[in-house]
Design brief:
CATH topology: Rossmann fold
CATH architecture: 3-Layer(aba) Sandwich
Helix content: 25-40%
Order of helices and strands: EEEHEEHEHHHEHEHEEHH
Mean pLDDT: 91
Shape: globular
Distance between the termini: 35 Å
Radius of gyration: 17 Å
Strand content: 25-35%
Number of helices: 9
Low-confidence stretches: none
CATH class: Alpha Beta
Largest sheet: 6 strands, mixed
Number of domains: 1
Amino acid sequence: MVFSCENLCKCYGKVQALEDVTFSIQPGHIVGLLGPNGSGKTTLIKLANGLLTPTSGAISICGGPVGKESHSLVSYLPERTSVPLWMTAAQLLDFYCDFYPDFRRDAAEEMLRSLGISPRQRIRQMSKGTREKVQLIATMSRRAKLYLLDEPIGGVDPATRDYILSTIITNYDPDAAVVISTHLIADVERVLDDVIFLNQGRVVLQSSVDDIREREGKSVDQLFREVFRC
């Protein structure tokens, strides 16, 4: 098991962000963490990355607790650009090489070349879409066991979305798992193996994409719209 939660709860004061969340994710799977805004997706990803502490319950990464050892197993892409804007693309790769022994610099440099992004260009000089590509390249160039991607295609054009999804598919280890948190279901559905629906901090569905299509006779996007209809 790459990633599992058991009776996981998280409260911010009196506000319950996650309640009794239980699921598991197998290696080799790309999983969509899907839900409306405020459903707890980002909270769950931050808990798995050790940025927040559970109120109760447990999280397991490759059979162990979240902590110093799990940090070497998880590659995390936050929703917002988190890399220093003064860095060049090459300096960002230097940074990743220093911190992560599993970082594949040759893979990252090849992706930069394929996109025509100069290693000497500063991140602050890049467009929003290019910044997101560079940050994703750095995230996916690690040989991690679990990739946690929070809204990796939010706010970028359709061509950029296609590139990002292609990068995700072709650059993760088949023994690893990828979790993609997004509300853009139609754009990511084609790359997903499984989905987890979150609503108001609770898991309301965990299923393979194939089972949804066979059982419901619908796409994941259609089922999502039905489940979360206002």
